[in-house]
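Lecture 7 notes: from sequence to structure.

We start with a single chain of 435 residues. Read the sequence below before looking at the structure.
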Amino acid sequence: MRKQFSVAVAVAFAAAASQAVAAGPIADGNWLLSTVNATGESAQAILKVETKDGVPTATVLFTPTRAQTRGGNPTANPRKPEVRDFKVSDKTISFTFRLPGRGGATSALTFVGTETSDPKKILGSYGSETSTIRAELTATDKDKLDPKEYLVRSPAADAYSKAIQAQIKPARLQAQARQERDAEKKAQLLKEATEAMKAAETEVPKLYRDVLAHYRNTPAGYDAALALIRSAGKTHATTAEASEWVAVVESQAAMYGPRFATPALTQVADTLADVKVLSPIAVRVIEPMVNELKNSDSATNQVKVLTIYRNALENAGRTPELKPIDERLAKLEIRLDREYLASVPPFKPEPYAGRTEKGANQVVVMELFTGAQCPPCVAADVAFDALGKSYKHSDVLLLQYHLHIPGPDPLTNRDTLARASYYKVNSTPSTFFNG
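Now the structure, written as tokens:
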């Protein structure tokens, strides 16, 4: 599927701010962009917003980087990101935030925000179309930051970190055991890993509950609630508990705008839909999204939302409501195939004109080993299909084998495994010409 990167950044700002200008809701001045997580805020850039001839503009004054250091301390990034197409309306701000990379490469990220009761703070989301995190813009009188200001820890950082450390301790011990050559020490590390895993099963939910009890209305409270929801089936959470956790996620996510809240709540519904006793909660969460679906929405998004909804309805025992959902999904699957074939490959394969030598009549055999759960295989699979459109079977014979790499693949069978064993293939994608 072709994915178009969104460059819109929505920000609502109080017009009562003393330095506000008539051009829109953003005030002239410096603004600190920070990403937000459970343990604190991480500075990304300081932007300067100013209005010239009635037109609002923005430039990057400062960006920290943790990759370059002098004496162990982070320094200012010599390659500043660029703000392009900065536009302001009465309710929104839109711009492209382009970040220079190595070798002249660039990446683009967007911030989409909403107003808060504080006229000097704008909450929103930051990232790409497919992945966003919480972020905020804060008015500042600074044009650069001291390295100590790059990261501001939240009051909940220590409490939340305890849960994370307890959760990753078993994996850390297992990794140490894999590297240990002494048999006795290896056995001891594996024993400690097993004990840590058992302890984590009971300790981690308690730690997250404790975070939620003391920091409910904070980013840490949101993350703790989301973690508890993910383990709701395993911990046999009650409907009352799950409802409370969902309420925290809903209220906290809403603060950062629909661009962040919608995927977050979709994830919540998807998780709870698989737990029969909690599936009615999933129905309540996903149903508003189903009602808001439009035919103009991407088929991929419609299928995702409707599939979660169907699963939740079925587990909730509302089977009479499945038929219309199944009918919509069937039509969307046809549309998905049509859209895929129209856009993939993202170029037009040119038909091979044929060989000019009369004696050249041998067929080239190409064999591709791939996997349904192999992200790097996508490009190889697309190219494989393109070859089929360029060459006749009398010129190139194309064979494709699926393997359980990196995860289970329903198209894998004894023949594909045998062929992989013949070539000693242990990674995908792997390609062989004429053996």
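Residues 229 and 412 are 33 Å apart (CA to CA). Keep this in mind for problem set 3.
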